[in-house]
Amino acid sequence: xxxxxxxxxxxxxxxxxxxxxxxxxxxxxxxxxxxxxxxxxxxxxxxxxxxxxxxxxxxxxxxxxxxxxxxxxxxxxxxxxxxxxxxxxxxxxxxxxxxxxxxxxxxxxxxxxxxxxxxxxxxxxxxxxxxxxxxxxxxxxxxxxxxxxxxxxxxxxxxxxxxxxxxxxxxxxxxxxxxxxxxxxxxxxxxxxxxxxxxxxxxxxxxxxxxxxxxxxxxxxxxxxxxxxx
Length: 230
Hints:
There is one protein chain. With about 230 residues, the protein is mainly α. It has helices at about 1-20, 40-50, 55-70, 80-105, 130-140, 160-170, 180-205, 205-215, and strands at about 20, 30, 110, 140-145, 155. It is globular and about 55 Å long. It starts with a helix and ends in a 13-residue tail after the last helix.
């Protein structure tokens, strides 16, 4: 009897180990055993973040903020100016995504952020907040090589910096002279890098951020009425 159970578990073992959550992937997103960042996943990330959903929403939001500030003033406060501001940010998003996609595909990198506790490249993990902060910075300035086990070696995040440069300098083609300068392009590129850094920190501290926001927005149940007639 015991021998039969052992054989059943031995044969079923591979089936149980096939499904797993890859490092840097969303919780509950079970893979088929291959954790590499495929070409299809890279294309999907480019389309969703730089061409459709996120890109359109981000361009509209930041374009609206710039419109309220009348920045740049050369475009005025009318609907034409609003369209220029939204369109310029959308074009920057496409240029950034295209550069990131091209360089990332050439290097075969895995751009998914990963938490310190789930990083397979760190064997002995330390407790405390300082290692997590350092890891958030490292996961921003470096990127993992795409690999089936998700443990590809780290290399400089060239795709990130290429995308930031494209986002910053491509706008010089249509911005007015006051914004089409190397200094302004560098500011736009720095903003792109800062956004990526914030994303890395969000991934690292997402559980704490979720608990904090949950505590802030949690609705307290109303206290029981006092003095009510029985």
